[in-house]
Amino acid sequence: MTRASGPLAAALARRTVVLDGGLSNQLADQGCDLSGDLWSGRVLAERPEQVAAAHLAYARAGAEVLITASYQVGYEAFARHGYDRATTTGLLRRSVELAARAAGSVDHEVWVAASVGPYGATLADGSEYRGRYGLAVRELAAFHRPRIEALLAAEPDVLALETIPDTDEAEALLGLVAGTGVRAWLSYTVESGRTRAGQDLAEAFAAAAGVPEVVAVGVNCCAPADVLPALEAAASVTDKPLLAYPNDGSVWDAPTRTWRAPAAPEPWPTAAWQRAGARLIGGCCRVGPAWIELLRSST
Question: Which residues bind Zn(2+) (predicted)?
């Protein structure tokens, strides 16, 4: 029983690697309460054994990368709920340790990706699907820096700079990892061929093209139909491996905190994604272990 023995980047040079699915939906299926502003972060704080169980479910389904429960954990958001800075730092590190525990409990290689979710996720108002928070790049960097430092202290295999809605936040995050030697991937959330903030995707991906620390770029938390155009835009400006982990096709309604499911979900064209350069493929919201098991068997 062991975690991955080599760098994720080396594996991506050889083959497709399967990511896990949505953590929140798996926690909900396990009976966890995700109500309130802290969302899955609340489960991380109050019921860590449930987070460990969710990771293990994905690892047993064949996932080769487990994304940590740190997506919505931010110092300011947790302070509003009475958590001091040291406790929040401990939770960020815990998120990596729980994923690593699950990774070491199966008989195939599993990498741990520390989730660095967008600033908007900590606001719990759907801002991550709009971007343009009114903050300067330096302010976004100041927000993310201590989160990244806490996660790195727990030694994940890679940082997942994920669900990024605009190029300002991408610039802030890329500036934090550039020149450090820390491995990371950059994943935008997109809609209709543009970032959620409405920016050109080729320009958005070009920002990461010259950053050696970035091992892959792509999209997540989007409609499956938006994946291929985004991958093609990325491939036009970078030769880095690409990644895709969309939702199941449902649409998030932030005011009601509910999902609107598609009338008839369609199979994912994963072969087309791979032909476009995707080497990291998995699922995001409402994609569970059964889906990942099917994906593992078909890639």
Answer: 221, 284-285
Find, among 161, 95, 103, the residue nearest to 128 by Cα: 161
**Is residue 221 marked as binding?**
yes
Q: Burial level of 219, CB count in 10 A (0-12/13-18/19+)? A: buried
Q: What angle do CA 116, 248, 101 make, to 5 degrees?
A: 45
Query: How far is residue 101's CA from residue 106's CA, in Å, rounded to a whole number?
Result: 10
Do the beta carbons of residue 209 and residue 151 sit within 8 Å? no
Residue 168 has pLDDT above 90, yes or no: yes
Left if phi > 0, otherwise alpha if psi is -120 to 50, otherwise beta: which for 34?
alpha
Q: Give me the phi and psi of 174, to 5 degrees please.
A: -65, -35
CA–CA distance from 52 to each of 42, 43, 73 (Å)? 14, 10, 17
**More confident: 200 or 252:** 200
Compute the distance between CA of residue 119 and CA of residue 141 in angstroms, rounded to an integer.
10
| pLDDT at residue 211 tops 50 | yes
Residues 6+ apart with CB under 8 A from 73: 41, 44, 88, 91, 92, 95, 122, 147
User: Given pLDDT bands bounded at 50, 70 and 90, which one contains residue 265?
Assistant: low
Length of the chain: 299
Question: Cβ of 25: how many Cβ atoms within 10 Å?
Answer: 23
**From CA 199, how far away is CA 45, in angstroms rounded?**
36
- Alpha-carbon torsion (254, 257, 260, 266), positive or negative: positive
CA–CA dist 187, 283 (Å, integer):
13
Looking at residue 210, what DSSP letter applies? Answer: T
Closest CA to 187 of 113, 254, 82: 113
Structure tokens belonging to residue 239: 């030769």
CA-to-CA distance for 281 and 106, rounded, in angstroms?
20
Supply the mean pLDDT for the chain: 94
Residue carrying the six token digits 């999209």? 219
112-142 residue pLDDT tens: 999 999 999 999 888 999 999 999 999 999 9
